[in-house]
Structure formats: structure tokens, C-alpha cells
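Consortium newsletter contribution from the modelling node. Members have asked for a concrete example of what our holo predictions look like. Here is one, prepared for the S-adenosylmethionine complex that several groups have been discussing at recent meetings.
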Amino acid sequence: MIDPFGRAISYLRISVTDRCDFRCVYCMAENMTFLPKRDLLTLEELDRLATTFVDKGVRKLRLTGGEPLVRRNIMHLVRSLSRHLQTGALDDLTITTNGSQLERFAAELADCGVKRINVSLDTLDADKFKAITRWGDFSKVMAGIRAAQAAGIRIKLNAVALKGFNDAEIPAMLEWAHGEGMDLTLIETMPLGEIEGDRTDQYLPLSAVRAKLAERFTLTDIPYKTGGPARYVEVVETGGRLGFITPLTHNFCESCNRVRLTCTGTLYMCLGQEDAADLRGPLRASEGNELLSNAIDAAIGRKPKGHDFIIDRETRKPAVSRHMSVTGG
Ligand code: SAM
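And here is the predicted structure:
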């Protein structure tokens, strides 16, 4: 699958549910209305869709959400998709999780061939964790991280950099993560969906974070890639890797290899644009995959060049109206 700008699409992210057991303040409003369960694709339909993408050249699948591990019987889908690892059709099957349910599922994920996962964690302070997630329990996430480590799964921590919230804590998080053998990636907050607060108050450009870190640590650019948008440095003092995902200060669209599927079968060709393609119709219209395959080709054929996120006091509206939980980041 090659898009109009010559980019090969080899990475599919699937949001398996829009529901989440946290309500992170920068991600969702507290009173979210979720999709009625009857609108969701079944796990078998998600499998068929994912498999069609694998047949068409996708080498990396990430399950996300909402919180992927709160979808009922999610391990049924993971187990089923793991067959593509065994055949060699897929290089990587992974998840992005808030860690709340990880203690329960870590061993089974490892058994399915999941080798590394992303865990979202914005602070190491239990009280601040409660404040930012509204509903989260820090000790459960820590137990989840321990369980994943014990199962031999490599963890990358993802932290959204938030002004006045965790900026002072970033050096400590970095030292802790690297001490535990985990990479850490920092993310700029993106203007997706209406939330209660003002994003201008939260937005922290990572260029400034990097400059501050460089006063204390030696940061060396490295060509390390995980298939995602992060650019990495090695932190000489800790020997660990630190990633930067900078959709605002440095647009990373030129190397975009990703498309995003929602739990209702809508394909978004760009995280920061409204255009989407319905794949549920062609999926359900016939038992064969020809219609579906054609619909995917048509969608890839209109993948946009990139997004234009703006966060400032004048731009009141989010770049796109849907929340991050629809596509899962
Ligand atoms: N529930 C899972 C988790 O917490 O990792 C997967 C879905 S969550 C939407 C994926 C990632 O998006 C998390 O790391 C979260 O912090 C991040 N995120 C959510 N809203 C965001 C926003 N507006 N800007 C930047 N990152 C955001």
C-alpha cells in the first residue's frame, strides 16, 4: 500500500473500544458519551479487517483504545492475531495501555508473542496520578508494569508533557524508567476533541523540555526507530533512550507509515484530519475480501500529506472534533 506521497503504509493501529477506565483530563471530558455496544465491530470482524491489512502489507499492528484491555474477551483477538507472527506475515503485535488491567493479562500477552508494549504514565506521584487520570489507581499500574516485566515484555513509557503538572518531574521519571530498563517517550499534547480545560494552559513544547534536560544530561541523537513517530536520543548518564513525539513543534508527517481503524470500522488516514473511510460497509457486504480490499486501496489513495495542529489562545477549537480515544493515538 503506497499513498499519493510515496509513503508505504505498513503500520495499522486499531482502537478496539472507545471506552476507558480512566478519564485523563487532557484526553476526555469526565462525562463522556461512549458508543452503544451494538455499534462495535465484533472481535471476529476486527480480526478479518486486521488480517486484510496484513495481507496487503501491514507489518505492525497495535491495539489501542480507549483502553484496549477493558474490551471484553480482548485476549481472544490478541491470540487470534498472533497467528500472523507465527507465519512471519507480521513483525510486531503490540498494545498501548494505561496499565490498569496489565497485571491480569501480562503473562498471556507474552504467551501470544507480544514482545514490547507502551504504557502511558504521566507522573510517578500517586496523588498527581489520581488528579490527572481522575479515576486511575497508581498502585495498580505499578503492579501491571511489574507483571509485564516479570513476563519478559519490554516496556516503553509514554508521558504527555504538561505545563505546570509534570515538567519538573521529567528528570526523575527519566532516571526511574531507565533504571528499570524502560525507554521513556515524551508527547506533546494535541488539540483533539473538546475537554473541560484550556489546552493553551497545558501545552508544553518539547523543544523547551529538551533544552532544559540538556542542561543536566548529555543527549545524543540516535537513528533508533520503532516504526512510530518518535525521534530518539540516548541519555549518556543513564544509558537509556528518550523519545520525543512532537506533532506541534516538529511535524513528523513526512515519514508517516500509519493508518488508524476505529472499533466501528472507520479508517482514519491521518490522526489530525477529519477525512475517513467506512470499512464496515464493505466488510459486511460480502464474505469475500475483494470489496474491502478495494475500499482500503481507495482510502490509502487519499491519505493526506499531514496535519496542522495549532494550540494558541486565538484558536479555540480543536483541530479535529473527535477525542484521542476514538483512534487511540
Ligand atoms: N488507554 C490507552 C493508554 O492510556 O495508553 C490507549 C489509548 S490513549 C488515548 C493513547 C495515548 O494517547 C496515551 O498515552 C495518552 O496519554 C495519549 N493522549 C490522549 N489524549 C492526548 C492528547 N490530546 N494529546 C496527546 N496525547 C494524548
